[in-house]
Amino acid sequence: MRPNALGKTLAGLVALAGLAAGGVVTAGVSYAAPASSPRTTAVAQPAVAAATQNFGLTTAEAKNVQRFLAQYWGYTDTIDGQMGTNSWKAMQRFLSGIWGYTGAIDGDPGTNTVKALQRMLAAQWGYTGAIDGDAGSGTRAAFKRFADS
Description:
- The protein is mostly helical.
- It is built from 5 helices and no strands.
- It has helices at residues 3-22, 59-72, 85-98, 111-124, 137-148.
- The radius of gyration is 24 Å and the shape is globular.
């Protein structure tokens, strides 16, 4: 294979890898090193989407929770029904103030956040399951009751 043809082939493969890894957004301009160069590297960075975790709440129910958090716990983001990082930071402030959450106010609804949520739901919203940090069907049903109140 001629050196120029090899370069074009490598450039095509790098572009194809970029498209496959992250779509059109991450498939940028690439180049092929000369055939004598031992290093040819392509790195694609996938686009990061904002993560939300509604734990089974509908958009309307999540908006109710966000309104509660805005009124009492410093939530200042959009009331959009998507429980994202800022919604969970406000929820963590609520849970730390009353329900024993001692973790970081980082907006990650992980195990410790869910345990505190379960304590709150058990005390007032009919949750009868284990305080185990697993947002299963019982936690989700009680969270819906809280959101609908």
